Amino acid sequence: MDSCLRILFIILLEKDKHIYSRNVQKKVSMQLIDGKVTSAKVKEELKIEVDKLLEAGKKRPHLAAVLVGSDGASETYVASKIRSCEQVGFKSSLIKQNPDISEAELLKVIEGLNNDADVDGFIVQLPLPKHINVDKVIEAIDPKKDVDGFHPINIGRMAKGLPAYISATPFGVLELLKRYGIETNGKHCVVIGRSQIVGLPMSILMQRNAYPGNCTVTLTHSRTTNIKEIALQADILVVALGKPEFVTADMVKEGAVVIDVGLTRVKDDSKKSGFALKGDVKFDEVSEKCSFITPVPGGVGLMTVAALMHNTLLAAKKEIYG
Ligand code: GUN
Predict the structure, then answer these.
(1) CA 10 → CA 5, 199, 248, 277, distances in Å?
(2) Is the pLDDT of residue 143 over 80?
C-alpha cells in the first residue's frame, strides 16, 4: 500500500511538472512589446540630439499643435504631445480654437503657421468638427512642416520610397518592430483597418524593400468577408480599426506577432476617470498564443508621440526636404 501511494505521488508530481514546464514555456515564448520603455528610450536619444543642436548654436526645434474644440480624448493626446516636447527639449505652442471656427478661419491659422519661420513643424489634431473639410485642411499644410505625414505629398513620397514624413503611428510601429528585432522579411503581414492615418500607410510600409518591411501584405477592412480566415494566416497582425477587443484568440495563429493600434475609451464606473482604455485585441486570450504583443495602454500609443517628436527633429534639421 505504501509503495502504491508513493507511485501515485510520483505520477502526480511528474504531471504537475509537465503542466508547470508548459506554462513556463508559454510565458518565456511570449514577449511583451513595451511602448513605455521604448518611447522613453527614443525620447532620451532625441534629447541628446537636441542638446547637440543647441551646442552647435542652432535654434531650438519648435512644434505647434492646433486643437479645435474640447474633445476629451483629443485634449489628452495633445497634452501628451506638448509634455513630450518639454521632455526632449523642444519649444511647443498650443493653438486652441473654438469648435465653431469656420473652415476659412482655420485655413488662415494654418497659413500663419506655414509662414512662421520659428515653427519647424505643426499638426492639426483630428478629428475636426463636421463642418470642416479635413482634406482641405491637410492639403493646406506646407508638406515641409507636415510632421504628421498626412499631406498627400508626404503619403505619395512615402509610397514611392522617397524621403518623407511618415505618419506617426505607423512610424512608431516600425520602430517597435525594429527595436525588438522582429523578423519581417518574407512574412505575411495582415493589417486590419484601412484608415488614411494608420492602416493604409502601414500596409504600404510593410511591403517596402526595407527593414522592417519586405512582407507580403493583406489589407483587410469593414467590407472584407473573411477577416478571421485571413487574420489566421498572419505572421504579423496589425489591428487598427477602433473596435474594442475585436480580435479574439481564435483569429490568431500560434506564434504570431500582434500589434494593437486600437485605443478606445470605454465607460467604466469603477475608474476615477469614468472610462477605461481598450485596445482592438482581447489581450488576455490572444497573448497566450502569440510570440510578441503590444499592450493597451503602454504600447503603440506612446510610440506615436515619440515618432512625432522624431519627425519634428527631422523638420528642424531640414533632413527631408533640405
Ligand atoms: N488623431 C488621432 N491620431 C492622430 C495623429 O496622429 N495626429 C493628429 N493630428 N490627429 C490624430
Answers:
(1) 9, 54, 38, 47
(2) yes
All residues at 6 or more sequence positions from 322 whose CB lies less than 8 Å from its CB, including other chains:
none
Torsion angle of alpha carbons 207, 212, 215, 221, nearest 10°? -70
Domain residue spans of the chain: 57-163, 166-300
Is pLDDT at 151 greater than 70 in this prediction?
yes
Name the residue with cell 518592430: 177
Fold equal for 57-163 and 166-300: yes
Distance 57 CA to ligand 1 centre (A): 32
123 within ligand 1 shell (Cβ under 6 A): yes
Mean of pLDDT values over 258-284: 93
Class of domain 166-300: alpha beta
- Compute the distance from residue 254 Cα to the ligand 1 centre, in Å: 32
- The C-alpha cell of 16 is what? 504537475
For residue 251, what is the DSSP state?
G
| CA nearest neighbour of 114 among 89, 140, 83 | 140
The arrangement of secondary structure in 57-163, i.e. its CATH architecture, is 3-Layer(aba) Sandwich (3.40)
